[in-house]
Each structure stands twice: as C-alpha cells, then as structure tokens.
Amino acid sequence: MTERVTDKALYLNRREFIAAAAAAFGVAATSRLDAQPAVHGRRLENVQKSPLSTDERPNPWEHITSYNNYYEFGIDKNLPAMFSKNFRTAPWTVAVSGECGKPAAYHLEDILSGQMFEERIYRHRCVEGWSMVIPWVGFPLANFIRRCEPTSRAKYLEFTTINDAKQMPGMRSSVLRWPYVEGLRMDEALHPLTILSVGLYGEALPNQNGAPLRLVVPWKYGFKSIKAIVRIRFTEKEPLNSWQEAAPSVYGFYSNVNPSVGDQGYERRLGEFLKRKTLMFNGYGDQVASLYAGMNLRKFF
C-alpha cells in the first residue's frame, strides 16, 4: 500500500484535520457561508412506499439538502450545496468490471429501466455524531447485482465516485486519495436494506446528496454510502476504502454503527437540542445482526 497523503497526527484532533484540509483549497473550516437548500426538482413517477421504512418523522428537505458530508465539494457541511449547483449528471455511465458474467458500461437510463422505485425512510448516522432521518427513493442494489451475473469468485463489491476536480473543488485538497472508493461484502450488498438511491422526498436526487446515483446502507456510518457512482467492480479480495486507507485506526472496512467503538455512544439528530443514545447497527440490528454472527465487532469495525 502506498503512503497515506495526510499525516496521521491530524486525525487525532479532528478540528485540526478539518481546518488543514479546508485550507488546502482555500476555504476556512470555520467559515459559515450561507448554504441554500436545493431547488425542488423533477418528480419521480410510480414511487411506492416501502414496508422497510422507519416510522420516525423525516428531517425536512431544508436540512437534508443544505447540511451534507461530500468532501469532493468541500469539508464544511454547507459547501456541497454551494459548489455542486452546476455539477453535470447527464449523460451518466456506470462501468461494471471484475468477477461477473456481464461486464459493461451501463448507461444510467438502462440501469433504471424497469426498476420499481420505493420510498425508504431510513435513519442516517455520521461518525461526527449527528444524524438525520431521510426519505430516500431507490431500488435494491441486489437487483443490479443479479443483472451483472457475479461469479462464485465475487466476494466483495468495490464502488468508485467520479473523478472530476474541475467540477469538484474539494478534490484539489489532499484530504483523501481521489477518487473516492468504498466497498461492501457481497452479503451486505445483497441485503434488502441496501439500495441504490436516485431521489429523496419523491424527487430526483439533488447534486449535494449524491446525484445521480448513490449507495445507501442504513446500518453503517454515512461515509459508506458512496455518492455519484461511476464504477462497480466485483472482487475476490476485500477492497481498500478511501477513509480506511487514510486513517485505518479510525475507519474500518465494515463501519457498522457500534456505540461501543470509539466516542459514538450518543448522537444529535439535526434539528434537536438534546442528544440521544446511539443504537447498535443504527437500530437495524433485527435485520442485519445475523450477517456478523461470531465476528468480533470491536476488531472488525
């Protein structure tokens, strides 16, 4: 593995790390520029309600589209809404490769053709200690996986974000090795809760939320839900994720929400004053705990 581009000591003090990374592309981490929520977009047709949704009240559109983790557009939570306005999401192609029977460059229109969209109201938990409830619109990732016909050697999926520093000013920093890469074990990817999202609140996905195609894995920390996907590779070996490469002692491959690992015992729901206890697997333990039976979840974090 090549040497990490960001000094490990910076990760011991997150405030220092964020300030240094932001300074690298000329934006002060403490600045609070006025981010505006996304303009409402195209309505998605034939969206069904999902029985897998939580019964918790979703955060409003204004929260979800103006407070974002999307480092390709900036470190501060308000910067993605500002810097992604002119990001081009069409035409869009996802290149599929690796251990599968149907590797190809799939046009987004072909990926979405024939899919039954569902609204999935999911909890969303970030490592920084904040959370939201988001009404995603999407379809099971398993649908697309089966279309690609993975072989018996395909044990993992590796996802890659678009690499376009001209459109994404955050990529001019050395905070991570670009492009952004994430991964899932195959059984995690095939789980019914794992979706590819194309919208929220019944509308096409705003740029700052990962348009036009993003992953959503609700029992994991938010950074696992990679945005603006342009490559999916079926692999036999566990892929190395961007944050795992940058700070392996902080960000593991699995990244399951686990309040007993690190300082993750409490969270603050955006819009609420009081903190709440963090739930194991973000409250989805009944559905996903069996995936990790017998694993030491402090070692495999």
Please provide a written account of the structure.
With 301 residues, the protein is of the alpha+beta class. The chain has a single domain (9-292), classed as Alpha-Beta Complex (Sulfite Oxidase, Chain A, domain 2). It has helices at residues 14-24, 61-64, 79-83, 108-112, 141-148, 186-190, 242-246, 285-288, and strands at 48-49, 93-98, 104-107, 118-125, 130-140, 156-161, 181-185, 195-200, 203-204, 214-216, 229-235, 266-269, 276-277. The strands form 2 sheets. Strands 1, 4, 5, 8, 9, 10, 12 and 13 form an 8-stranded mixed β-sheet that branches. The longest helix is centred in the N-terminal third of the chain and has 11 residues, at 14-24. It is globular.
Q: How would you sum up the global shape?
A: globular
Largest sheet features: 8 strands, mixed
Structural class: alpha+beta
CATH architecture descriptor? Alpha-Beta Complex
SSE series = HEHHEEHEEHEEHEEEEHEEH
Strand content: 15-25%
What are the key terms here?
301 residues, alpha+beta, Sulfite Oxidase, Chain A, domain 2, five-stranded mixed beta sheet, 8 helices, disordered N terminus
Structure described in brief:
This protein is of the alpha+beta class. It has helices spanning 14-24, 61-64, 79-83, 108-112, 141-148, 186-190, 242-246, 285-288; strands spanning 48-49, 93-98, 104-107, 118-125, 130-140, 156-161, 181-185, 195-200, 203-204, 214-216, 229-235, 266-269, 276-277. The protein has a single domain (9-292), classed as Sulfite Oxidase, Chain A, domain 2, CATH 3.90.420.10.
